[in-house]
From TrEMBL:
<dbReference type="GO" id="GO:0003755">
    <property type="term" value="F:peptidyl-prolyl cis-trans isomerase activity"/>
</dbReference>
<feature type="domain" description="AIP/AIPL N-terminal FKBP-type PPIase">
    <location>
        <begin position="18"/>
        <end position="146"/>
    </location>
</feature>
<dbReference type="Pfam" id="PF23322">
    <property type="entry name" value="PPIase_AIP"/>
</dbReference>
<dbReference type="InterPro" id="IPR039663">
    <property type="entry name" value="AIP/AIPL1/TTC9"/>
</dbReference>
<dbReference type="InterPro" id="IPR046357">
    <property type="entry name" value="PPIase_dom_sf"/>
</dbReference>
<keyword id="KW-0677">Repeat</keyword>
<dbReference type="GO" id="GO:0005737">
    <property type="term" value="C:cytoplasm"/>
</dbReference>
<feature type="repeat" description="TPR">
    <location>
        <begin position="255"/>
        <end position="288"/>
    </location>
</feature>
<keyword id="KW-0802">TPR repeat</keyword>
<keyword id="KW-0963">Cytoplasm</keyword>
<dbReference type="InterPro" id="IPR019734">
    <property type="entry name" value="TPR_rpt"/>
</dbReference>
<dbReference type="InterPro" id="IPR056277">
    <property type="entry name" value="PPIase_AIP"/>
</dbReference>
<dbReference type="InterPro" id="IPR011990">
    <property type="entry name" value="TPR-like_helical_dom_sf"/>
</dbReference>
<protein>
    <submittedName>
        <fullName>AH receptor-interacting protein-like</fullName>
    </submittedName>
</protein>
Length: 321
């Protein structure tokens, strides 16, 4: 292990291939990382292999943990290396780790570049709070999986300019539609959610009620409906109720929104709400009488089945003491 950067020692564990990458602005590095303390045996703080996806870093986006950019700039694709860093070099690691953990647990949305600061004295993770109180050296084991130049990969919403976000909306919706047709409902929902995220970020720049704002807001309706349909198929009913309600607040005569919300209410035993939504469906479109009757019959049968099951349990007990 040699001193490679002030405060950092690098040791190559597995040699990569090709030349060291020339990282221009917008280049994306895809890599796995493991963060350890220097105790014996080493305490692992974070390991990206436990996540669904490896880490992605876009150069030129002012990533808060600068040493990771420097580490990657010294590596070849396929290389695995260990970087042992002095405390001053990794002072920002607790904040970056908090952001990455929160994203993994669904506590916040992207961006992955982790520029946010903690809003209070506690980061919400005991091991990270300890690092803040008692800074110590850390070791990163990094495996560089892939490098893509700007234009070679699809940008996520946080990486785009407002103009790029607007241009991406039809593409994201069409990709979602294609995935839906292939019955890849999780992936389709992700595409619709990404498009909705673009719109939300664009809306922030506009004044509510202005023509541009109204136009953008109206584009949410088909995306919310498509997202809700995916969630309905996947059995994730409460987001369906939330997002179809958002559609109804914009368009009180939207039959699809009432029908899908009625099905979601029925699935979570909201009998009155389901019946009210299905009644509204019939009011708006009487030709759907057969479909509504089928859904109401399913709800009635489920309720009867549950009541019968509960009564059977009570019969075997002396409930009167």
């Amino acid at each position: 292990m040699s001193m490679w950067e002030p405060g950092v020692k690098k040791r190559v564990l597995y040699a990569g291939t090709g030349d060291v990458v020339d990282y221009q602005e917008g280049t994306k590095a895809v890599f796995h990382y493991e963060t350890c303390k220097l105790d014996e045996p080493p305490t692992v703080l974070d390991d990206s292999r436990s996540q669904e996806k490896p880490m992605e870093l876009i150069f030129g986006k002012k990533f808060k943990l600068e040493i990771w950019e420097k580490c990657l700039m010294s590596m070849r694709v396929g290389e695995v290396a260990e970087f042992v860093c002095e405390p001053r070099v990794v002072a920002q690691y607790p904040i970056v780790a908090k952001s990455l953990r929160d994203i993994r647990q669904g506590k916040q949305e992207h961006p992955r570049h982790c520029c946010g600061m903690a809003s209070d004295n506690s980061l919400g993770y005991a091991d990270l709070d300890e690092l803040v109180r008692q800074p110590q050296p850390l070791a990163f084991i990094i495996e560089l999986l892939k490098v893509e130049k700007k234009g070679e990969y699809s940008q996520e919403a946080w990486q785009m300019t407002p103009e790029e976000k607007k241009a991406a909306l039809p593409r994201l919706q069409e990709e979602g539609n294609n995935l839906y047709r292939l019955k890849q409902f999780h992936q389709a929902a992700d595409k619709y959610a990404e498009a909705l995220g673009c719109i939300e970020q664009l809306l922030i720049r506009e004044k509510p009620g202005d023509e541009e704002w109204v136009g953008l807001d109206s584009r949410k309706v088909p995306l919310l409906l498509n997202y809700s349909q995916c969630k309905l198929i996947l059995g994730d009913y409460y987001p369906v109720i939330e997002h179809t309600t958002a559609v109804i607040n914009r368009d009180e005569g939207n039959v699809k929104a009432y029908f899908r919300r009625g099905k979601a209410h029925a699935a979570v035993w909201n009998e009155r709400e389901a019946q009210a939504d299905f009644s509204k469906v019939l009011e708006l479109d009487p030709t759907l009488k057969g479909a509504v009757r089928k859904e109401l019959k399913l709800l009635e049968d489920r309720i009867k089945s549950t009541e019968k099951e509960e009564w059977g349990k009570l019969k075997g007990k002396n409930v009167f003491g």
